Amino acid sequence: MAVTQEVVSDGRSVPKPRLLRELALLYVRLGTTAFGGPAAHIALMEEEVVRRRNWLTHEQFLDLLGVVNLIPGPNSTQMAIQIGYRVAGWPGLLVGGICFIFPAALLTLILAWLYVRYGTLPQAAAVLYGVKGVMVAVVLQAIWNLARAAVKTRVLALIGVLAILANTFGLNVLLVLFGAGMIVLAAKEAAGFKSFRSKALSLLPQNPLLSLTGTLGTAAPFGLLPLFLFFLKVGAVLFGSGYVLLALLRTDLVVRFHWLTDKQLLDAIAVGQVTPGPVFTTATFIGYLLGGTPGAVVATTGIFLPSFLFIAVIGPLVPRLRRSPVFGAFLDGVNVGALALMVVVTWHLGKAAIIDVTTGALAILSLIALIRFKINTSWLILAGGILGLLAARGLG
After folding, report:
1. What distance in Å separates the CA atoms of residue 383 and residue 88, rounded to the nearest whole number?
2. To pair with 323 at 20 to 30 A between CA atoms, which of 51, 118, 131, 216?
């Protein structure tokens, strides 16, 4: 018999169709207004699904965050997919991911059409000038809330500080995460958990996509199938920031395939950065440049499809991993490491966003509004964008 009720973290039983509608509306709104990159997107999700709706606890949210940091692909999109699955099962997995991706992909498609028609991009710097200051405050509040749940002991606090330092000095993100997890695991073993290595290996999911990535993306003349396979490879293997995405795209699309020029690629990356929602919608822009609307659909599907497959395989295992003493300890370390990475990203975001007295004041006032008055972040983002436009007009 089909499940018609879902129980959320505060014990309430909610009709599944209503929960799916709420989930869809939430992610359409976030996909339309979530500026600032993955850290900001995750902060907005924490506010909505943990503090406002009580769909998940802070601990459950942290477990999902730890898992998505260990697999390739866009972290914030994978969080949307995982939250959808945890809240509303398999239908929620699809609704969460699609509704978060679609608004940003549609906006990117419109910008790509304008770019092809007029040869330039509409200026978004004024809007971002005000919005980024707001997003710094949103992320800081989320880090504070998640840290209270993640940092359970002095050992975890020390590991968090070491992870911040390691990432600041350039240590690979995966090494930071696995290192934090293994340190906590080793400490747990010393306290009495034995033979964790064999248990750990027995619980690791085997994903067939990982074995395919070496064969995808070989040199080929342009076509929709090669375009799909290339972006499928990117979505299946990419770790890291938009700069890593830029390097990977340039190596193949510009240098190897000669499908794009450097200017077109930089414009595509810029669109991914200035539009709300996932940065990976850069693929939508590139796909449109190369193959029109069919190319945009194919590229977008290719780059995001691995995230749905990864979460479909790993998502059901997360509660089991948490119940395991071995992986529970490992996940505690990974969660602290992931939080440390958010701190480092927020520091860089802050340096880029707070560039004068106006943006500094906007960030401080936004933080006060969030903490003291519990104002919805969507209103703050709207206000920041309007103030940015007004400031630009005043300077002009």
Report:
1. 32
2. 51
Side-chain-side CA neighbours of 42 within 13 Å: the count stands at 31
Four-CA torsion 260, 270, 282, 29, nearest 10 degrees: -160
For β-strands 5-7 and 13-15, DSSP reports them as antiparallel
pTM for this predicted structure: 0.70
Report the pLDDT averaged over residues 134-149: 82
Taking the CA atoms of 262, 265, 271 and 273 in sequence, report the sign of the dihedral they define: negative
Nearest Cα to 326, choosing from 196, 201, 205? 196
Encoded tokens for 156: 């975890």
Residue pair 133/354 in contact by the 8 Å Cβ criterion: yes
Q: What confidence tier does 382 reach under pLDDT thresholds 50, 70, 90?
A: confident
Model confidence over 291-336: pLDDT tens digits?
999 999 999 999 999 999 999 998 888 888 788 888 888 888 888 8
Across the chain, mean pLDDT equals 80
Token readout for 138 is 């949103």
Residues 304 and 189: their CA atoms lie apart, in Å, by 38
The answer to whether 263 and 276 have CB atoms below 8 angstroms apart is no
- What's the per-residue H, E or C state across the chain? CCCCEEECCCCCEEEHHHHHHHHHHHHHHHHHHCCCCHHHHHHHHHHHHHHHCCCCCHHHHHHHHHHHCCCCCCHHHHHHHHHHHHHHHHHHHHHHHHHHHHHHHHHHHHHHHHHHHHCCCCCCHHHHHHHHHHHHHHHHHHHHHHHHHHCCCHHHHHHHHHHHHHHHCCCCHHHHHHHHHHHHHHHHHHCCCCCHHHHHHHHCCCCHHHHCCCCCCCCCCCCHHHHHHHHHHHHHHCCCCHHHHHHHHHHHHHHHCCCCCHHHHHHHHHHHHHCCCCHHHHHHHHHHHHHHHHHHHHHHHHHHHHHHHHHHHHHHHHHHHHHCHHHHHHHHHHHHHHHHHHHHHHHHHHHHHCCCHHHHHHHHHHHHHHHHCCCCHHHHHHHHHHHHHHHHHHHC
Q: Tell which residue, 343, 311, 312, has the closest CA to residue 151.
A: 343
What pLDDT sits at residue 122? 56
Of 41-45, 134-138, 147-151, 251-255, which one has max mean pLDDT?
Answer: 41-45
